[in-house]
Amino acid sequence: MATQNPFDMSALFANFDPQAIAKQLQEGFSGTSVPGIDTNSLVETQRKNMELLMSTNQAMLAGSQALIQRQAGMLQEAIAEVTNAAKSLSTSGNPGEVSAKQIELLQKAFEKALANSNEISSMIRETQDTVTNKVNSRIAESLQELKETVAKVK
Description:
single chain; 154 residues
């Protein structure tokens, strides 16, 4: 019996088709003309914008899934470490040894938490940078396309 992955959110976007939306826009503009404006250019610009929306959503989804999976891995690692720490502490009878081991375990736990925090921050930053770069690039292209379309109006 196969179970569905609870972190797989691709079903949310299964029916989203930027090509179909662009086609609907094109059909909506067919027969409509604005003197001096190429409606096909406007439709093409919107198609590209929809593709950007889809690709950025996919990038965010992939980043979120990777983040969730890594956090689950971190939790499993932490559980294993706590189990090992409990075994280690239970074998020591000397109070001085127990105290020294506790301090050592606390130091390691703090360092691990800091490293995990940095890793999570890095994963989030990489996803944000990817999406931001795509959006910034598309905005620049869209403005250029708009400028070219307006320049054709006489």
